[in-house]
């Protein structure tokens, strides 16, 4: 990896690891809720979507693949496996999407708290909506840098709104057989939790969603007094 590309792709790998960590949190919630039945479902899912090898470095995972292609494959594997797991549990249990949403939100809170430490955020930083959104971009996997990810629509110290014209996750979620809106809701619960983890007064609102039939996605972080 070059000195220019290296940091960007390690940054992307960190976001992929966050996705994998959220998956693990959701799996733990399923195991706690459904017991031995969860293990049976997961055994079948992991045959189709193998678990990642956490002992390998990014260089080992990419091996001789082109860097961009290798990173993209890691994203696809992580998002498809998470969606496959959720789809399998939703097919078996009527409350599985809710269980996953609660677990995702709790995981988001944990990540927000980690961001405060890792980025050495000041009290002023934690009370600034654009700063919280900036931190979100270092944790939430939202496609490759070349994709049109979240675009800021408006911002002030206490409020920031952003949109998406397309969903980079949709094809992976649907390929795994997961419900588009259910997956969107689960990820949005994680986003809400992330904001709360940095500042408990942060309110998150999904105002529009492609998954709900809107022409674009529109989201807001607002710090309430």
Architecture overview:
The protein has a 4-stranded antiparallel β-sheet with strand order 1-2-4-3, with helices on one face. The protein has helices at 5-34, 36-48, 58-62, 67-92, 96-118, 123-126, 129-136, 170-175, 180-198; strands at residues 151-155, 159-164, 202-208, 217-223. The chain contains 9 helices and 4 strands. The model is unreliable at 1-5 (pLDDT under 50). Strand 1 (151-155) and strand 2 form a beta hairpin.
Write a brief structural summary:
This protein is of the alpha+beta class and 225 residues long. The chain contains 9 helices and 4 strands, in the order αααααααββααββ. The longest helix has 30 residues, at 5-34.
Low-confidence stretches: 1-5
Average pLDDT metric: 93
* CATH fold-level name: H-NOX domain
State the end-to-end distance: 46 Å
Rg measurement, Å = 17 Å
Series of secondary-structure elements, N-terminal to C-terminal = HHHHHHHEEHHEE
Tally of alpha and pi helices: 9
Shape: globular
DSSP strand content? 5-15%
Number of self-contained structural domains: 1
Strand elements, count: 4
* Gross CATH architecture: Alpha-Beta Complex
Mind summarizing the main beta sheet?
A: 4 strands, antiparallel
Helix/sheet category: alpha+beta
- Into which percent range does the helicity of residues fall? 55-70%
Supply the CATH class: Alpha Beta
Strand order of the largest sheet: 1-2-4-3
């Amino acid at each position: 990896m070059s000195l220019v590309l290296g940091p960007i792709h390690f940054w992307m790998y960190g976001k992929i690891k966050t996705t994998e960590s959220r998956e693990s949190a959701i799996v733990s919630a399923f195991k706690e809720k459904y017991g031995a039945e969860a293990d049976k479902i997961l055994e079948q899912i992991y045959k189709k979507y193998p678990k990642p090898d956490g002992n390998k470095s990014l260089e080992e995972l990419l091996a001789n693949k082109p860097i961009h292609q290798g990173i993209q494959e890691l994203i696809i594997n992580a998002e498809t496996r998470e969606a496959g797991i959720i789809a399998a549990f939703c097919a078996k249990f009527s409350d599985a999407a809710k269980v996953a949403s609660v677990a995702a939100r709790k995981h988001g809170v944990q990540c927000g708290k980690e961001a405060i430490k890792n980025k050495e955020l000041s009290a002023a930083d934690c009370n600034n909506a654009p700063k919280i959104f900036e931190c979100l971009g270092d944790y939430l996997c939202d496609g490759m840098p070349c994709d049109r990810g979240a675009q800021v629509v408006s911002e002030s110290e206490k409020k920031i709104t952003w949109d998406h014209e397309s969903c980079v996750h949709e094809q992976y979620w649907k390929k795994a057989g997961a419900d588009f809106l259910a997956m969107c809701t689960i990820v949005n619960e994680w986003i809400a939790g992330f904001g709360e983890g940095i500042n408990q007064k942060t309110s998150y609102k999904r105002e529009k969603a492609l998954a709900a039939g809107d022409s674009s996605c529109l989201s807001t972080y607002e710090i309430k007094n």
